[in-house]
Amino acid sequence: MKKTYNNTDQNLIRIFKYFSGGVALVFILFLMIPAPLATGDPVSRRAMLLFFITYTFIFIYLTIPRLEERLKSWFLPPVLAAASLIPIAIINAKYRALLNAGIPINTLDDTMTVTILLIFPLITTAWNYRYPIVFLFFVVLGLLDPLLIFLVNGGITEEIFGAFNASLIRIPALAAVGFMITELRNHQRQEQKMLEEANRKLQEYAHASERLAVSRERNRIARDMHDTLAHTLSGLAIQLEAVDTIIKPDNTNLKNMIDTARQTIRTGLHETRRTLKALRASPLEDLGLCQAVAQLAKDAGERGNFQIQTELPENTPDWDDNLEENVYRIAQEALENIVRHSHAREASIKLEGSSESLTLYVEDNGRGFNADQPSFDDRYGLWGIKERSAALGGTVQINSRPGKGTQILFEWKKEHD
Q1: Nearest CA to 341 among 414, 266, 279, 402?
Q2: In this predicted structure, what is the pLDDT of residue 406?
Q3: Tell me: the pLDDT tens digits for 310-343?
Q4: Are strands 346-354 and 307-311 parallel, antiparallel or unpaired?
Q5: Residue 263, class by beta-carbon neighbours within 10 Å (0-12 exposed, 13-18 middle, 19+ buried)?
Q6: pLDDT mean over 273-283
Q7: Which of helix, strand or coil describes residue 6?
Q8: Taking the mean position of all CA atoms in its chain, how far away is CA 174?
Q9: Which residues pair with 57 in a beta bridge?
Q10: How many Å is the Cα radius of gyration of the chain?
Q11: Strand partners, 7
């Protein structure tokens, strides 16, 4: 079991450390104050010394470098138990010693002291653990206090009745405080998750907007090149063709020069068209995988005159470009088969997954075919789907029977090293 503490938890642990150091300092100062300002009886001074030792060790424990990294989830429980149980034990031992010495006990002062000392372990426990654990911990702690009073003193006497009553009242009080802190923690963590989700969606939106802007700019440049450079070169090629027809046959040098110019223009046109093709963004680049598949489905339904249902994720998971490109082509081929061969009235396409997996399911109610022996026209499309699936390290299942429609299921899972 590994537990890591976030920045808020770390700050709370740091404050707990300073609190323990401050408590230890307060008790040592009380011990250093000369009588009669300080409590004069040796029992109370011994209790102060024990408090000083306890909180000094807690402070040192929380200060030891890299101890949290080594103990992980076991880092906090020992110090929380010590900060909660030891003060109660010290106060009960003090009560017994005072009563044996015939010295009256001050229930109010001791109750206030213990309550204050227990508040910060309660806060730290409630912030780091679920409320049932917090409630159980402090119920046990609250019952331990009166139980110790009862056992140490052999019953409830008039002298310790106030202490016994205060320890019982402390149970619901601490439980209520723990509940409020736990609720505040849950609310804070829920808001943090909502904020992280909003940030993730904002980043996806920014990325999509940037990708769309780049795609539109590429398309604009491609249009400009087509309308200017490509048309100019085409016109020049036509003019050279016309010039070639009016040159005298015996003017060999000029004819060779024109032929060379025409060849250069042809090469330029070919390169221009290749550049235009590369510049023009595909629907996948322009819209993203989910919207591109939705557009494919809409176009296929209109061309094939069938109803198609789409079930696509609202937000595209973090899939790499190669996976998205091949999944888009698989969906394109599957839908094209429906349009060309199935004569379906209805079809559906479903895409789902996470950054670790992806599932594409395409189904139609068309005429179907024998999946073991597809027709010649079907064969190339199905081979293409299988080849793309194998290249991605995924699996594909193609189920079909004559008159029973076709189902294509593609599944991919990320491989871990």
Answers
A1: 402
A2: 92
A3: 999 887 788 887 888 889 889 988 998 898 888 8
A4: parallel
A5: exposed
A6: 65
A7: coil
A8: 34
A9: none
A10: 40
A11: none
Kindly give, in sequence order, each residue whose CB lies less than 8 Å from that of residue 326, ignoring residues fewer than 6 positions away.
388, 391, 392
Angle at 59 between CA 58 and CA 63, to 5 degrees: 115
Cα–Cα distance for residue pair 172/167, rounded to 1 Å? 10
Residues 180-187: contacts with CB within 8 Å, 24+ apart? 181/122, 181/123, 181/126, 181/127, 182/126, 182/127, 182/130, 182/131, 182/134, 183/131, 185/126, 185/127
Mention every residue, 6+ apart, whose C-beta is less than 8 A from residue 178. 122, 125, 126, 131, 134, 135, 138
Cis peptide before 104 (omega within 30 of 0): no
Maximum distance among all Cα pairs of the chain, rounded to whole angstroms? 139
Residue with tokens 């537990």: 3
Residue at token pair 């937000």: 315
* 297: β partners: none
To the nearest 10°, the Cα dihedral for 260, 261, 264, 268?
Answer: -170
Alpha helices in 280-375 (DSSP H): 283-287, 289-304, 321-337
- Which residue in the block uniquely carries the two structure tokens 């029992």? 43
Structure tokens given for 273: 């068209």
Residue of 283, 280, 274 lying closest to 218 (CA atoms): 280
> What's the pLDDT band for 66 if we cut at 50, 70, 90?
confident
Question: Does the reported pTM lie above 0.85?
Answer: no
Confidence of residue 157 (pLDDT cuts 50, 70, 90): low
Give CA separation, 26 vs 19, 41, 51, 333, 363, in Å: 10, 18, 10, 78, 75
